[in-house]
Amino acid sequence: MNIPNRITLSRIMLIPIFILLLSYPFDWGVWNVADQSIPIVDLVALIIFAVASATDWLDGYYARKHQLVTNLGKFLDPMADKLLVSAAFILLVSMEIAPAWVVIIIISREFAVTGLRLVAAGEGVVLAAGQLGKLKTVLQILAIIFLLLHNVPFSALGLPIDSILLYAALLITVVSGVEYFVKNWHVMGDSK
Fold first, then answer.
1. Could you list the residue ranges that cross the membrane (predicted)?
2. pLDDT band (50, 70, 90) for residue 191
3. What does the alpha-carbon distance between residue 53 and residue 41 come to, in Å, rounded to a whole number?
4. CATH class of the domain defined by 3-188
5. How far is CA 61 from CA 48, 67, 130, 160, 165, in A?
6. DSSP letter string over 83-129?
7. d(CA 120, CA 74)
8. Which of 14, 18, 105, 181 has its C-alpha lying 20 to 30 A from 45's C-alpha?
9. Is pLDDT at 51 greater than 80 in this prediction?
10. Contact between 179 and 132 (Cβ < 8 Å)
11. For residue 39, which of 149, 186, 133 has the smallest C-alpha distance?
């Protein structure tokens, strides 16, 4: 259990705190900014989400810099990302901030890719994320951040950056999923 893997596990441990903050009816007041009233609890959850998301970059950077890339890390890191992003999107649907159909497509892709990774792992092959997969993660994280911010500061300008990021994330999620399966379909054929 090296330092990057511990950082990844810390991301996983922040997820229940994030879920609790957005699920329990805490009343810590609101922050009025521009034309929006954002519940303080949403902002605290956003900070937790942002810190957890930043650990994704940190663990990868540290692992590459110190040559601590492991198969466990290659498995845990994308799993932690999927758990964090899925939890956030599901909560955004329950808060009626994100459309359910978009979230269903995004999460379905994550399950499908995870299934392929599990088949590959059974064959002793570790499938790392590609560049489109990394872009997908960045777009999903940015979409979640702006959705939790109720599109502040862009709401004052009438610019729906939160929606633009969400639909861009959806598009790249689908395209990267197709690319991932096309590139790694041989794993399914090679499995016993």
1. 12-31, 43-62, 83-107, 137-158, 164-182
2. low
3. 18
4. mainly alpha
5. 20, 10, 16, 32, 25
6. HHHHHHHHHHHHTTSS-HHHHHHHHHHHHHHHHHHHHHHHTT-----
7. 12
8. 105
9. yes
10. yes
11. 149
Q: Please state, in angstroms and rounded to a whole number, the distance separating the CA atoms of residues 76 and 8.
A: 7
What the block records as the tokens of 174 is 């689908």
| Stretch among 84-93, 113-122, 154-163 having the lowest mean pLDDT | 113-122
Distance CA 29, CA 136 (A): 33
Q: What 3-state DSSP class applies to 1?
A: coil
Q: Break the chain into its structural domains and give their ranges.
A: 3-188
Tell me: cis bond preceding 25? Omega within 30 of 0 counts. no
Pick from 134, 140, 133, 138: which is nearest to 183 by CA? 133
Measure the CA–CA gap between 84 and 81, rounded to whole angstroms.
5
Q: In this predicted model, what pLDDT tens digit does every residue of 61-111 receive, in sequence order?
A: 888 888 888 878 877 888 898 899 999 999 999 999 999 999 999 999 999
Distance, in Å, from the CA atom of 181 to the CA atom of 113, rounded to the nearest integer, reads 8
